[in-house]
Amino acid sequence: MPEDPRTLSTLRATQVDPGPPWRPVVVRAEVDSTNAELVRDPEPWAVLVAERQRAGRGRMGRSWVTTPGASLAVSVVVPAVGMPLGWVPLVAGLALADAITATAGVATGLKWPNDVLAPDDGERKLAGILCEWTPRGIVVGTGVNVGHARAELPLATATSVRAAGGEVTREALLTAYLAHLAALVGDLAEDPPAVRERYAARCLTLGATVVVHAPNEDRHGVAIGVDEEGRLGLDTATGRLWVSAGDVVHVRPANAPVPAPDC
C-alpha cells in the first residue's frame, strides 16, 4: 500500500520528476500563496509547492485552506503562446482529473470550468484551480485534498482522494499531474478540437440544469457545450447565451429524470 501522505512532513521534491519542459520542483514550508509567489516571478514551466499557505485563494475570491501533509498546494507557469488561452484553465482541470484517476483509482469528473469532483462520492469536490494571467505566462494554482479523512474535511461538499476510497502519495500525484498537463498543453496547441472533445467527455456540467452565479447576475439554464474560447453555453428560458466566468451549481445532474408536472 502507498505511504500515507500525512506521514510526510515535507513533500520530497527529489521524488517528483515529470521531465521536460518542467523546471525542478521547489518546495517551501510556508508562503502567502503559491500563485502570488509565481505571479511575482513567472518563469515559464516553474513549479512551486507549499506545505502551508497563509493566504491561499480559490476562485471567486474564496480562501483555500491547506493542511500540511494531507493537501497538495502547487502552482505552475504555463507559457501563454500558441494556444487558445481561455482553454488553459479547463485543460488544467482535465490534467488533474486524469492524474487522480490514473494514480489513485478514483473516478473523477469536472464541473465547468475546472473543479475536480468525485462522481461516486456524491459529486463532492476533490480539488480546485485558480489561474492568473501574466505577460510571461499563465499561473495555474491547484489545491487538492489528498490524505484527509472524512471528518477532517472543512465542508460537507468536499472530499479527498482518501475519503473517496483512493490511496496515493503526493509525490506520485504531482508527477502525474505535471506530466498530464504538459501533454495536454501540447495537444491544445496542435489539435484544439481533440482536447475539447476529451474535456466534454469528462465534464459533468454538460447536459445538467445549472445556475451560474456570475458577477452581475445569476443565469439559469441547461449547459449545452463549451466553445472555442472556453465559454459555457446555456439554453435559457430567453434563449442561448455564453458565459465566460461564474460559479456553477448543478441543480439537476445530466441525464437525471425530469420530474413530471403537477396535473
Word description of this protein:
The protein is α+β, with helices and mostly antiparallel strands and 263 residues long. It folds into 2 domains: 5-202, BirA Bifunctional Protein, domain 2, CATH 3.30.930.10; 209-252, SH3 type barrels (Roll). It has 4 helices and 12 strands, in the order E-H-E-E-H-E-E-E-E-H-H-E-E-E-E-E. It has helices at 34-40, 88-104, 170-190, 192-202; strands spanning 25-31, 47-53, 71-78, 109-111, 115-118, 124-134, 137-145, 209-213, 218-226, 232-236, 239-243, 247-252. The strands form 2 sheets. The chain has a 7-stranded mixed beta sheet with strand order 1-2-3-7-6-5-4, with helices on both faces. Helix 2 (88-104) crosses helix 3 (170-190) and helix 3 packs across helix 4 (192-202). The longest helix has 21 residues, at 170-190. 47% of the residues are buried.
**CATH top level assignment of the largest domain:** Alpha Beta
Q: Could you report the average pLDDT, rounded to the nearest whole number?
A: 88
The total count of strands amounts to 12
Domains, number? 2
Basic shape: globular
The major β-sheet equals: 7 strands, mixed
The N- to C-terminal Cα distance equals 56 Å
Give the helix tally: 4
Reading the helices and strands in chain order gives EHEEHEEEEHHEEEEE
Characterize this entry briefly.
With 263 residues, this protein is of the alpha+beta class. Helices cover 21% and strands 30% of the residues.
